[in-house]
Specification:
mainly beta, Immunoglobulin-like, 4 domains, 7-stranded antiparallel sheet, 6-stranded mixed sheet, 47 strands
Length: 634
């Protein structure tokens, strides 16, 4: 019933050990005293272990808080935590180590000893992680001891935690190299392998991609000429194994037993030797066969995996008498070979050590060395011909580097030259086939002041009924603040004026059967000048009967080209449902809007600020059919 609380306490410690397989490598952890406040029920500070990046140094302090008294969240039972101990961690990325702040005490934490300081612990995680990027699942083993209802419970627990290993910056995970991609002269670079599991045998085979190879963890610096090279490294880690044992001589501890009696000054029988292989903690690894009645013996064809530190214990086997110790010898192999031993009063021989492949790490990355610098770019610039106009152009010339080039303009263009642009500064980044880049900035100008011209043209009048009409005209190429529309009945002298911002005006003030006139002038937004009035456009309203038979649909979009926002005007002869969609040059739908629109002029304001510059089709679907307008988004 205390398992949930144990889980909370143990997981607190479990998570802090997610980046290590052994201790004593990361001293100096600093406790964050605020952790007791930010995690009052017990927990980590920070809550999430920061991700590591393959090939980059990693150093993090993790504080954990274990409250002395707490309540099991599932049962509501009050418990006292006496002790929590970290006992083991497995499944970690290679290259990271950890150390708790009380490593000398075996990472044992006793919250009640002197709170609040004793309720806080710390683990430093450090090293340079290597290996395949991804999320590593780590098994954490702890022992928790708690008291509830006066009963002390001790429970070993195991939990799974995780740490994310991000891809390396350089592209390689098991080795690093100095320097950076060079788009100038040749350069010299140094390499370093990151994996070395000594005292396990580790080998390194380098291929530098330029015909040179090397071995060793830190090969000699390599000189590269211009070009692109694939550098590869194969790292192999070997475990040791015993392949043969020769016992050349033995001490006389065996002589005098019932099986080998000592008579008349000599031993009347020979010993029966065998050997045990044990690890550094005296745990038995292997027991050999017994050789009967011999003064020397050999064991061949063995395949006994051994750690980097082990011992061999020779013994005389007796059926009745106590077995006799012939000597124990310790070994710490530094590579494959034959290792001799002697001592223990006369026991001697040799042990042949071989290797078996345990792990192989294959890694490669590209190294860039270029020396064909750019010349330029230079540019021929065409200024805009009007204030606010968009007929400027930049024609650039460049050489050097390695073709083909890729162009990235600040206005989003990816062509060598740009046109149809207004006054302003334009930056370009040029990248060649090798990834080398150069940048430049060019300015397009415009006239200091020009008249607001020409006068509006393209005046039309679309009749919606005996009293309603849509008056429209072509917008000026210059940016405008608005338009002034003047109208009158045919034959009258005075004009009636209206101001509008767009190139159209819908009115429902006309008399059936009467003829009217209208004209338009513009006010330019850059200069503030007024254009001349347009030519006069006449139109005649239908009688009431003619108007009832006419239900036209009109669509206009302004401004065009579009920079940020645009207005779609839809003139309807009757109430109906209208669908407005926008599609790009590939026919992909990027906008859709369906609403019921009323008789007369309807306006829809649209935001194009997030659209990629280019050509778009605005489609307006009504009861009478589909109206399509092409627009340019700059």
């Amino acid at each position: 019933m205390f398992r949930n609380f144990l889980y909370t306490s143990a997981l607190t410690l479990g998570l802090i050990g997610i980046a290590a397989s052994s201790q004593a490598q990361c001293p100096g952890c600093v406790v964050n005293p605020a952790c007791a406040t930010t995690a009052p029920e017990g927990g980590l500070c920070p809550e999430v272990i920061p991700a590591a990046t393959a090939g980059l140094a990693y150093d993090e302090n993790i504080t954990f808080y274990i409250p002395t008294n707490a309540t099991d969240p599932s049962t509501g039972i009050a418990v006292t935590v006496l002790q929590v101990t970290i006992t083991g961690v497995t499944g970690l990325p290679f290259g990271l180590d950890w150390q708790c702040n009380n490593a000398l005490s075996g990472c044992v934490y006793t919250p009640p000893s002197s709170p609040p300081a004793s309720e806080l612990g710390c683990v430093k995680i450090c090293g340079t992680p290597l290996g395949t990027p991804g999320t590593y699942t780590v098994r954490v083993d702890v022992i928790a001891q708690v008291v509830a209802f006066g009963i002390t419970l001790t429970q070993p627990l195991s939990f799974d935690a995780s740490i994310q290993l991000l891809p390396p910056v350089s592209g390689a995970t098991t080795f690093t190299f100095s320097g950076a991609p060079n788009c100038g002269d040749q350069y010299v670079t140094s390499f370093a392998a990151g994996i070395n599991e000594s005292p396990r045998l580790t080998t390194w085979d380098w291929n530098f991609g330029n015909g040179q190879t090397a071995t060793g963890q830190f090969p000699a610096p390599v000189v590269y000429n211009p070009g692109v090279y694939t550098v590869s490294l194969t790292t192999k880690v070997f475990d040791y194994k015993i392949t043969q044992v020769n016992l050349n001589s033995m001490n006389d501890n065996w002589c005098g037993d019932v099986e080998e009696p000592y008579l008349f000054g000599i031993c009347t029988a020979d010993p029966d030797p065998f050997f045990d292989v044990r690890d550094a903690s005296s745990n038995l690894i292997y027991t050999s066969a017994t050789r009967d009645d011999v003064l020397s013996a050999s064991w061949t064809g063995l395949n006994v995996a051994v750690p980097t530190s082990f011992s061999i214990e020779f013994t005389d086997e007796d059926v009745v008498s106590q077995w006799d110790a012939l000597g124990t010898f310790a070994f710490n192999p530094t590579g494959p070979g034959v290792y001799a031993f002697s001592g223990a009063g006369g026991t001697s021989g040799t042990v042949t050590i071989g290797t078996t492949l345990a792990d192989t790490y294959n890694d490669a990355t590209e190294l860039f060395a270029f020396s064909n610098p750019f010349i330029g770019p230079s540019a021929d610039i065409t200024d805009a011909t009007t204030i606010g106009g968009t007929n400027g152009a930049i024609d650039i010339t460049i050489s050097g580097g390695t073709m083909p080039y890729t162009y990235f303009w600040s206005n989003g263009a990816m062509t060598q030259d740009i046109s149809g642009v207004g006054a302003g500064s334009y930056n370009v980044l040029i990248e060649d086939a090798n990834g080398c880049t150069t940048t430049a900035s060019f300015s397009v100008g415009e006239p200091a002041n020009v008249p607001c011209a020409p006068a509006p043209t393209g005046l039309t009048s679309l009749i919606f009924g005996p009293t309603s009409a849509l008056l429209s005209w072509d917008p000026l190429s210059q940016p405008v603040q608005g338009y002034q529309v003047q109208g009158r009945r045919l034959g009258e002298i005075g004009w009636v004026s209206r101001k509008v911002t767009g190139p159209s005006l819908f009115l429902s003030i006309f008399e059936p059967g009467r003829t009217y006139q209208f004209r338009v002038r513009a006010k330019c937004s850059v200069t503030g000048n007024l254009s001349a009035y347009s030519a006069i456009q006449n139109f005649t309203m239908p009688t009431a009967r003619e108007g009832a038979e006419s239900t036209p649909v009109t669509v206009s979009v302004f401004p065009n080209p579009i920079q940020d926002r645009a207005v779609v005007e839809i003139g309807l002869g009757n109430d109906q449902e209208v669908t407005v969609t926008v599609a790009d040059q590939l026919g992909r739908l990027v906008y859709a809007n369906t609403q019921t629109r009323l008789t007369g002029l309807n306006t829809l304001e649209m935001d194009f600020s997030n659209f990629v510059p280019g050509l778009y089709l605005i489609n307006v679907q009504t009861e009478r059919g589909l109206e399509i307008r092409k627009v340019i988004v700059e």
